[in-house]
Amino acid sequence: MNINVVLCTYNRCQSLAKALESAAALVLPEGDEYVVLVVDNNSRDRTREVVENFCQRYPGRFRYLFEPKQGKSHALNAGIRETRGDILAFLDDDVTVDSNWLGNLTAPLRSGEWAGAGGRILPDRAFSPPRWLALDKTYAKVPLVIFDLGSVAGPLHVAPFGTNMAFRREVFEKYGGFRVDLGPRPGSEIRSEDTEFVVRLFAGGEHLKYEPSALVYHEVPERRVTRKFYLRWWFDKARADVRAFGVPSEGAWKLGGVPLVYFRRLAAWMVRWMVAIEPSTRFEAKTKLYWLVGTILESYRHSADSKRRLEVEIARSSRLAEMPKTSPKTDC
User: Fold this and answer.
1) CA distance 33 to 5
2) Looking at the chain, which runs of residues are DSSP E strands?
3) Where does the pLDDT of residue 316 fall: very low under 50, low under 70, confident under 90, or very high at 90 and above?
């Protein structure tokens, strides 16, 4: 089986080197082959030099591709177009992988039962959470890119995270690539490009497998373990979800295109935040507030854009209706 690993990177040459070192040590079943394609998304550091060094050390194992159009989804789609493997796996530039990661992740895809698979993502072994962060809660795990559904393999009913997932090639031929209006880029942390793609697959009736033995360890830099990072992350996550899936349809009553229920929830979580005493409970309430504000603002923007498009279309139709009708010329 021919497997391609697509690794998109931007200005992270130091952590990239660690990721590639771990990828070089991967062990696959006899007869399987893999190539790691590193897609450099306009980096200004030593990224190309690092990748070319690995290409020289491991001939045929690593390839380099430069994608000038900024944005992770552009890089992902460029990588998909450039590869020819039966299976495509995806990895980020700030992780290290277990030596059996790729073999375990792609094993379920040898038959036609599963369209894709997702593995377990754990923080690096040295990570220790602060008091205000409760790692047993979803709100705390997701910004740290922790994806851990336990040690038992089975069907996936939620989207895996982009740094530990694999799909059969025909999935992209059938459903297309990643949406380029989603995905992080310089100046924007709007994400959900992986979630939106997987939701398309679920809607098409495809099945995904959770494989906990496919282990990835994600780096947790200090900047991620701050309240400021968390609050901004959940604010942008809410905006990304509205872009990806539209304005929430909860409730019949809306204000400015936003369901009124979100304003009520905003008030409720504001009260919880104000009265909470325990640090992690108080911070959880605050992240909910930022998520709700992001949802409300992006829903309003989405509704306003839709209204403007409708007004433009109505004006255009009116102009066409008012145009004088001309009779065909006839020769006397």
Assistant:
1) 11
2) 2-9, 33-40, 62-66, 87-91, 95-97, 116-123, 154-156, 165-168, 208-218, 254-255, 258-259
3) low
Check residue 264 and give its pLDDT: 92
What residue spans of 84-226 are helical by DSSP H?
101-106, 138-141, 169-175, 193-203
Residue 29 and residue 45: Cα distance in Å, rounded? 36
Q: How far is CA 89 from CA 4, 92, 102, 201, in A?
A: 6, 11, 8, 16
pLDDT tens readout for residues 250-295: 777 888 888 899 999 999 999 999 999 999 999 999 999 999 999 9
Distance in angstroms (rounded) separating the CA atoms of residues 230 and 212: 26
Q: Are strands 116-123 and 95-97 parallel, antiparallel or unpaired?
A: unpaired
Measured in whole angstroms, how far is the alpha carbon of residue 271 from the centre of its chain?
32
Nearest to 180 by CA among 196, 164, 198: 196
> What would the pLDDT profile of 54-67 be if each residue is shown by its tens digit?
999 999 999 999 99
Within 10 angstroms of residue 223's Cβ, the number of other Cβ atoms is: 8
